[in-house]
């Protein structure tokens, strides 16, 4: 979840127009890849931006930034919409979409369920929530805090999930949830979709 929400940007452009511009660029790239025989695309949405430690500094009470989360949801809705349209307009266009927002929100709401003890503060940084991007002496700041057990933290620094969290996201994208991996019973495509939080194109064979 490295994308950063900048409130100053939206003083001159609406969120909807900004998302439209971004999706337009993505569409251009996808069509360009299609022209050189790209047919199968794996796409991932944006996670809950407003709940990253760095974004909590924008709120008075340390809660998730509703504006940042709104931007992420607008983007994800627009992205899934354009993927569905491309599927109907481009011959043999296939895609899979990982719902990073839903998966990230689940870990934030229930960190202990996934083996984390801390989902509010970052492992490395300074200031409230260790949210200031000073980890490793960045920005000329030599004093910063580094936790002893990064694997217990959902976020490693200001904007990035920890290595353990990233491994879990990768496992979810490739193999489904832990519950799904434990079953030995055959699964229908509907069950697989539910486990993966994936949306599949109708053109998949």
Automatic annotation (TrEMBL):
One of its GO terms (molecular function) is lipase activity. Gene3D superfamilies: SGNH hydrolase. InterPro entries: GDSL, GLIP1-5/GLL25, SGNH_hydro_sf. Keywords: Signal. Belongs to the 'GDSL' lipolytic enzyme family. This is SGNH hydrolase-type esterase domain-containing protein. It comes from Eucalyptus grandis.
């Amino acid at each position: 979840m490295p994308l950063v929400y900048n409130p100053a940007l939206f003083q001159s452009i609406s969120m909807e127009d900004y998302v439209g511009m971004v999706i337009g660029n993505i569409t251009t790239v996808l069509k360009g890849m299609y022209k050189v025989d790209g047919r199968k695309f794996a796409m991932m949405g944006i996670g809950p931006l407003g709940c990253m430690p760095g974004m909590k500094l924008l709120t008075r009470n340390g809660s998730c930034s509703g504006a940042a989360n709104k931007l992420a949801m607008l983007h994800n809705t627009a992205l899934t919409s354009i993927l569905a349209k491309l599927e109907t307009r481009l011959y043999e266009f296939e895609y899979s979409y990982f719902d990073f927002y839903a998966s990230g929100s689940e870990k934030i709401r229930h960190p202990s369920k996934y083996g984390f003890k801390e989902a509010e503060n970052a492992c490395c940084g300074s200031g409230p929530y260790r949210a200031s991007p000073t980890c490793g002496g960045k920005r000329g700041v030599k004093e910063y805090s580094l936790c002893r057990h990064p694997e217990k933290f959902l976020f490693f620094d200001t904007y990035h999930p920890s290595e353990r969290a990233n491994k879990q996201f990768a496992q979810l994208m490739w193999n489904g949830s832990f519950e799904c991996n434990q079953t030995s019973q055959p699964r229908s495509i509907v069950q697989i979709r539910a486990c993966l939080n994936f949306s599949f194109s109708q053109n998949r064979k």
